[in-house]
Amino acid sequence: MQGYIYPNEFELHWSILVVVYPYVTGLVAGAFILASLERVFNVKEVQPTYRLALLTALAFLLVAPLPLLAHLGHPLRSYEIFLTPNRQSAMAMFGFVYAWYLMVVLLLEIWFDYRKDLVLWARQEKGLTRWIHYALTLGATDLSPRALSFDERMGRWITIIGIPSAFLLHGYVGFIFGSVKANPWWSSVLMPVVFLFSAIVSGIALVLIIYMVSAMLRWKPVDMKCVDKLAAFLFYAMVVDFSLEMLDFIHRLYESEESIEILSQMIESRLFISLIVLQVALGTLLPMITLGLTAPALSKRSAVKLPDELKRLIYLGSAILVQIGIFSIRWNVVIGGQLFSKSLRGLTVYKLELFGVEGLLAAAALLILPFVILWVLVKILPPWPEAEAKLPRAEDDSGAVTGAVPLR
Amino acid sequence: MAKFDPFRGTRVPQQVPRLVAVFAVAIIGLLVARYFLVPDTFGQLGHYRAAALDTIVAHEKKYAGQQACQLCHFQIMQKRLAGNHKGVGCESCHGPAATHVSDPAQIKPSIPSEREFCLRCHEYSPSRPTGFPQIDPVRHNPMSFCSNCHDPHAPEPPVIPGQCSACHGQIARQKAVSHHAGLECTTCHEAPEEHKVTPRLVRPTKPTERSFCGGCHARDADSPPHIPRINLRLHNPRYVCWQCHYPHYPETP
């Protein structure tokens, strides 16, 4: 502690769990926007990661509210925000944004995309998996060209609705912080936009990591065209994100409100490691420069010629650095916003506990949980190209199953 | 086994009714849950259960409020309102006293008697505004309860003592019965006024040389004749006088 702070500012109220929450929602929005790229803008190269990105988004979305529930306590009351919607409360409306995104966007898109495969898998398999897959079709087993093209059209429409929804989901998180008038570190109209682009950066980097690691674990070759494209996208997104953050920064410096003194003091002391070192130097500049040089981002060929193996390692390393950087961004926003006194006269410290609901271990568990869920999802809905089932042969438009492998 | 498919042959794709059914179940489920779980009085007065007010009103009252005390403890009330604790309610020190008000003879409120109690508000803490009276409990008259020196109902800011004897009582009492009774402390000590406010920071002078006592006691000193004289050059010249004569109670050993 240093200088003067109000008694109720001595301890931070929003702990590391509140850091995990925007980090995880950011990954959801980012992964989904990456998937949409392929679908809406027809970027063929990233096709191998399309389904993986959707499942990643779903796995992280299922975990997204957990840090909040753990932090607020009383998880058994959480359903009440649906029963008695409060339109005055931005936080309460999140329940609806979340539900819309989960039910109408993500689950539907996955369902339409997988339906054909679900039907075919159910026909070929035996035992439990067969029933799981059959149940997931909801009984809609029509594989006629008309039905399939309906799937395709719906999927496309949902993606088109999904992009603004994903923007809403994460822009909303930025809105929550940006609209706190009393906090000069948060209060900024740029906040939702900055959040959104950092979300895209983190989502692309995450899918890149998961794609490469899963290929490694399955002893499958990595599609180099695909990772090159992902790395290039990651680079573009980082350039936009970094420019926005610089814009925000310069804007604050130029505006130079009365808070500027305590904020710069905070950056120089409390946030030096997490902001200057982790967020800017290691999490942004270093990966951005390496990606700019190694990925084919600025021209058709990359500026520095490297063997594929090395390039993959560099991509993986950069993506991991980006994750650290984005987590630091969330940390700096959430924790930083509470480190200085609203009297602008002093700084407090955040003591991170190890055990307990608000501790480091709980946060780590919440960050590991999505990968466990993803593992289960991948088992039920394999996203790999080779798992995709081929139509046995054309079925007639009436929807009657005339194929060689009947369902019953 | 015949397949159940009521939409077969119609133009609606098979997926639509299935999804509509799922969403219908979810939405109807929500409405049913709303019907059963949302309390009747919810929303009547605002975004909360109106009946909650009655529940709160029905709570037992623990605090009487300081207006209630005035009736019987008028003097204490007047004293407090004129003093430095005018902003501190009776019950913040004496605890909830609603039961005492209804039965003053039987039920007595608590009376704080621990130093820790006053320290809740007065212990030094950097988050308290500068200027708020704060003390360091380890240094500030330890072992003694605060109200031995401060009136809890009208505590006074520190008064600067007028006399040296306020703090140096023992020396003053000794001197008073000694041969030096007629001498002021300031004859021998130059004591700045600030010494009385921050005694440890500003210290008075003390005599350092034999010639100082010689100013009255030397043979040739210009002092009243009844003062006993010595030969300053011969009377134990290798020592300062107060190694043998205690200046606040000088005796001839």
Automatic annotation (TrEMBL), chain A:
InterPro entries: Electron_transfer_protein, NrfD-like. It is a multi-pass membrane protein. PANTHER family: PROTEIN NRFD. It is found in: Cell membrane. The chain crosses the membrane at residues 12-37, 49-70, 90-111, 154-177, 189-213, 233-250, 271-293, 313-333, 354-378. The lineage of its organism: Bacteria, Pseudomonadati, Gemmatimonadota, Gemmatimonadia, Candidatus Palauibacterales. Gene3D superfamilies: Formate dehydrogenase/DMSO reductase domain. GO terms for cellular component: plasma membrane. The keyword Ribonucleoprotein does not apply. This is Polysulfide reductase.
From TrEMBL, chain B:
The keyword Transit peptide does not apply. The lineage of its organism: Bacteria, Pseudomonadati, Gemmatimonadota, Gemmatimonadia, Candidatus Palauibacterales. InterPro entries: Multihaem_cyt_sf, Multiheme_Cytochr_ET. SUPFAM superfamilies: Multiheme cytochromes. Keywords: Membrane, Signal, Transmembrane, Transmembrane helix. It comes from the Bacteria. This is Cytochrome c7-like domain-containing protein. The chain crosses the membrane at residues 20-37. The keyword Nucleotide-binding does not apply. It comes from Candidatus Kutchimonas denitrificans.
